[in-house]
Amino acid sequence: MAAILFVGDALSGAGWALAGVQVVVPGAGEEAEWLTQLCAPPTQLLLLTVAVARSLPLALQQRLFTLVTPLVLVVPDVQGSLPMPDLAETVRKQLGVGL
């Protein structure tokens, strides 16, 4: 396994592969199974598309996003089929200063 892994759709993965990142394209419903295997050394950075992140059970999401190693980041897919959450707006609402 590589130090940096991308987990998502094949089209988005093609761009990451050009950048030298190892790409994993799991089948439908296989995302959780793949991620438990991929969170082992030497993986240092794990990039997930929004669709993959949303398809995971909540317990696995919480575990993944609290890991120190590997660092897990959610990235948009190339088609923008699922929008990234607006984190600034979420924080403003939680602080009570949202519009």
Task: Characterise the protein shown here.
The structure is a single chain. With 99 residues, the chain is α/β, with parallel strands linked by helices. The protein has a single domain (4-95), classed as Rossmann fold (3-Layer(aba) Sandwich). It contains 5 helices and 4 strands, in the order βαβαβααβα. It has a 4-stranded parallel beta sheet, sandwiched between helices. Strand 1 (4-7), helix 1 and strand 2 (22-24) form a beta-alpha-beta unit.
What is the secondary structure topology, with strand pairs?
Blueprint: E1 4-7, H1 10-18, E2 22-24, H2 31-38, E3 45-49, H3 50-55, H4 58-64, E4 71-75, H5 87-95
Parallel strand pairs: 1-2, 1-3, 3-4
Short description:
The chain is α/β, with parallel strands linked by helices and 99 residues long. The chain has helices at 10-18, 31-38, 50-55, 58-64, 87-95; strands at 4-7, 22-24, 45-49, 71-75. Strands 2-1-3-4 form a 4-stranded parallel sheet, sandwiched between helices.
Query: Distance between the terminal alpha carbons, to the nearest Å?
Result: 45 Å
CATH architectural type: 3-Layer(aba) Sandwich
Return the CATH topology. Rossmann fold
Looking at the structure, what is the overall shape?
globular
Number of helices: 5
CATH-level-4 superfamily name? ATPase, V1 complex, subunit F
For the biggest sheet, the summary is: 4 strands, parallel
* Rg estimate, integer Å: 14 Å
Percentage of residues assigned to helices = 25-40%
Calculate the mean pLDDT score and round it. Answer: 84
